[in-house]
Amino acid sequence: MAQHTLWESRRAFVLASIGSAIGLGNVWRFPYICYKFGGGAFLFAYVIALVLIGIPLLALEFAIGYKLKGSAPYSLGKLRYNLVGYEENEERMQRKGKFEWIGWFALLVSFGIVTYYAVIMGWATNYLVYSFKLSWGSDPRSFFYQHVLELSDGIFNFGRIQWPIVLGLAVSWIWIVLSIWKGAKTVGKVVYVTVVLPWLLLLVFVIRGLTLPGAMDGVKYYLTPRFEFLLNPALWHAAISQVFFSLSVGFGIMIAYASFLPPGSDVLNNAFLVAFSDAATAYVGGFAVFSALGYYARILGTTVDKVMKSGPELAFVTYPTIINHLPLAPLFGVLFFLMLLTLAVDSAFSMVEGSAAALIDKFHFPRKKANIGIAVVAFVIGILYTTGAGLYWLDLVDHFMNNFGLFVVALLESLVIAYVYGAENLRNYANSVSELKVGRWWSLSITALVPAASFVLLIYSFRQVLLKPYGGYPRVAEILGGWLLVIGFLVIAFVLSRRKSKEA
Ligand code: PHE
């Protein structure tokens, strides 16, 4: 395996993992889903999913990466031979692992995500500039859909490429690549800014939001539990997939990040720390968003339950409208989009870093070449999302990556640990290197709960799209942007795992 640079301190690792976890997922996906599924009831389900499923999986990824010291494919490929008693067997160690492809698949899914995640950063880059003059004017909705996106009337009607977004996308990619230029060494420095700054800005928006007229209507909506929602399987599906997405687990990233830890580090404490910071950010972010929604409802002369449409709407229509009504409007605009960008960038570069680490491990790609190569390919693919049909494709790919890619990875990872490596073996290992210990409940979660939940969700998602095409898009689009992508990734993952690794 190629030598990766290691984190310079525990803090660097924790911040980088928190940076990956905290992203657009916390400030728009979380509030939006929470809004859709009955506020407080969703919070309740979210916490349960976090503790019983999310944290065990995060601890699993940290433990694997730390133990096997490599990117996801490398670590998972090696795993088989670490069954009790195999460690000493040189000859077996030489043979290729059977589970390497799971790691590649996880990374391909995160690659699929970063292709559009960077486009959202591209929008935000444009909006950062628009903020100075409040260019969205008095009708932010038409501005966003008709001017910025030039959204067409159908998924196959591509319209034109929006060059300002392409430019924003390019800027975002340059920023991403520079942030991981020398691997953990650079990341460890960048995250001091990209984790701390958005947090401070988030606090500004919480305070600003809560002091607006009508704020309490929003907060009430956020926190009032409508427990009848708990009976809806869709809520549990949303809670679990939100936990995965938000913690960045099931993408192979946390495995790579933990592999850059120097010997003598802790695993479990860090997992809890990262998970709780992420959840706390989502929770606090909820106050910023819902208080603002309360105000927004007041501006529109309606009630909170009628105002939220989707994540992108929230950031690019709702917030600009609210900002228009604030004193010092341009300042708040700039701060808001700066917050989004700094939240997003460390999530985006973690997705690249996870894959770059794998290319370095297996093919001994020079790091910079790996970074630039991934960025260029993702940038070119990203151009699709800058067309008039871009938002539709973004939505479709997002749905498939999160509902099929992610659950498949979570299912396989937990099964491999549970039934090949032994959950108890990994638990003992993790406990032996950590201050904080986890009890048997952890193994129980990995052997039963995580695989069962992932499997059920997979079937559930499958059934949903069979019954009705996702988002009402034509089936052909769904096949192209959904199924072909997932199956293609599986095939590529197999092919990559069968390639001989290059010797140094
Ligand atoms: N966790 C990030 C967020 O909440 C998104 C992400 C997903 C990052 C997958 C890395 C991998 O926005």
Arithmetic mean pLDDT:
92
> What's the architecture in CATH terms?
Up-down Bundle
Tally of contiguous helical segments: 19
Biggest sheet layout: none
Give me the secondary-structure category.
mainly alpha
CATH class: Mainly Alpha
Shape: globular
In total, the number of domains comes to 1
Residue fraction in strands? under 5%
The unreliable regions are none
Bound molecules: phenylalanine
Intertermini distance: 8 Å
CATH superfamily: Amino acid/polyamine transporter I
The percentage helix is over 70%
CATH topology title = Amino acid/polyamine transporter I
Radius of gyration: 22 Å
Descriptive notes:
By secondary structure, this protein is an all-alpha fold. It has helices at residues 10-21, 24-36, 40-68, 72-79, 90-94, 100-133, 140-148, 163-179, 184-210, 215-223, 233-247, 253-259, 268-300, 311-324, 329-363, 367-382, 390-433, 440-467, 475-498. It contains 19 helices and no strands. The termini are close together. 56% of the residues are buried. Residues 20-21, 23-26, 110, 113, 245-246, 248, 251, 253, 347, 350-351 line the site of phenylalanine.
